[in-house]
Amino acid sequence: MIDLHCHMLPGIDDGARDLASALDMARLAVADGIRHTVCTPHIYPGLYENTVPGIAAATRAFRAELENAGIPLTVSYGADIQIVPELVAGLQGGALPTLHGSRYFLFEPPHHIQPPGMLELIHSAVAAGYVPVITHPERLTWAEGAYTQFAEAARLGAWIQLTGGSLLGVWGPRVKAFSERFLADGITHLVASDGHNQSNRSPTLGPARAVLVELVGEAEAHRLVSQRPAAVLADAAPVEVAPPNPAAPAPRRRWWWFGGTTQDSL
Question: Is residue 258 part of a domain?
């Protein structure tokens, strides 16, 4: 398996707090069967003022520590990039990093405010030759009311990436059900850990992969955590999303209504 979204670099944002924590995270990833992790610290103006040279230097230093510790994990870098008007210019000029130097980059919408012009920015990035990978849309507080925008983003050429923990219920039943909707509608391209620590947000994918097998079948589960991530590392052409496995049982969705009540549907 390959993890394209993990905050493992020590002390650089809200991920691993120090080197010991980062090495523990790396050991967890290896034990889970992950062979390559892309370290993606936030680039968030006003909060995490990370730069490409700084991220690259931190990655080189961490590689050396992994080698010294005998941990067989390959690491490269990208960034969790907030939506900014100068996004395309930043990618073209090298001020914003792509994933492993590829055409793919993490595109993080704000969590609590629906951004204006998101589809236009995605269209501009795709027209410039990039593939935006929209990170954890299922966890955004405003996303259910704007679901059609994410379907349209996928149609324009963006990729949708879910967080493994969402499928496991880490963020609650609403987020879990919304994740299942993305999968059932066939607009999910990747699943990543978005790992931040060794406990509740670990850098692992195995448990989520098991859920994916139940929901979309073995072949598509493999594409979500291995084949498509490998295509990103190789800067290869996108691997299409296959429809969910018709032999797999349809997931029971729990639709949440205002007022806090729920209703099951098959």
Answer: no
